[in-house]
Amino acid sequence: MKLIDFDKKFNRRMAEYLEKHAGERSEEEWEDVIAAAYRKFGDTVLSEIGTTPRRYFADMTDGQLTETLKEYLLQDVSVPDLLCEELERRGAVPETLALLRETDEDLVLYAIRLIGADPRAAERYAQMLAEDAYDEHVKAELTETLREMADDATEALLQLLHGPAREDALDILSRTKRRDERVYQALLSAFRAADEEEIPLYAGYLAAYGDERALPVLLDAIAGEVGFVAYRELKFAIEALGGSYEEERDFSQDAAYRKIAQAGAETDIFHPKK
């Protein structure tokens, strides 16, 4: 497939304009000018294609659009924003959803960003978290997107709680807004089974979920033998749920506490270390 490098065409035109008008605007003003120029470029008829760049992509079928995206990436040609805008406008059509079954990292990342938090992709997103075909970059993007649509993905995420994607699933489930006893119990169980190093993470999940029923469990944990890091995160979680813990604790012998205190002393501009 022969591709048109729309970005190259636009950049060449813009470079000529910038050279003629250099120094006339601030950097921030130039950003607005360039954005407006790109919009105008998208609606300008190009003799090479006999139509505007925007219409060029709008006239493609869903399948043609996704295949064109693949080719831009395969041929290492800059993917036009106008192509991405058209794919975003159409949403999670079957052809775009099919890209989520590809394994090329760049293509999959494009697909996730273009589909976004569309509920139609929720189940597939969750499945991808548990698949070895995707690396940490893809899974980080999936996690971030699923946090925005946690309620839509609840059922699929609950299926991941006994597999390798458990941590990601708990993280995302803690962001759900719709109350679900299964979610609360999963977060609570994870906290109760946590070791010292895991307490801050799971306390944070309970705080994010926002169910006040977790307060007695958190208060019981903070009253026990915990280190400074766990204590601090437990206190934050308790306060986030509307509770409080005021008992004074001595962490002067805690290695993490001493390290944090030392770092603070060294950066205190009013009382510099001598």
Can you characterise this structure?
The longest helix is centred in the N-terminal third of the chain and has 16 residues, at 27-42. The chain is mainly alpha-helical and 274 residues long. It is 62% helix and 0% strand.
Describe the structure concisely for a colleague.
This protein has helices at residues 6-20, 27-42, 53-58, 62-74, 81-90, 94-98, 105-115, 122-129, 136-148, 150-158, 166-173, 181-192, 199-209, 215-222, 228-240, 255-266. With 274 residues, it is mainly alpha-helical.
Annotation keywords:
274 residues; 0% strand
Give the helix/strand layout.
Blueprint: H1 6-20, H2 27-42, H3 53-58, H4 62-74, H5 81-90, H6 94-98, H7 105-115, H8 122-129, H9 136-148, H10 150-158, H11 166-173, H12 181-192, H13 199-209, H14 215-222, H15 228-240, H16 255-266
In total, how many beta strands? Answer: 0
Helix amount: 55-70%
Q: Which runs of at least 5 residues are low in confidence (pLDDT < 50)? A: none
SSE order: HHHHHHHHHHHHHHHH
Which structural class matches the secondary elements? mainly alpha
Q: What is the average of the pLDDT values?
A: 91
Instruction: Report the total helices.
Output: 16
Overall outline: elongated
Query: What is the terminal separation in angstroms?
Result: 69 Å
Seen as an oligomer or otherwise, the chain set is single chain
- Sheet with the most strands, sense and barrel status: none
Strand content: under 5%
Query: How large is the radius of gyration?
Result: 26 Å
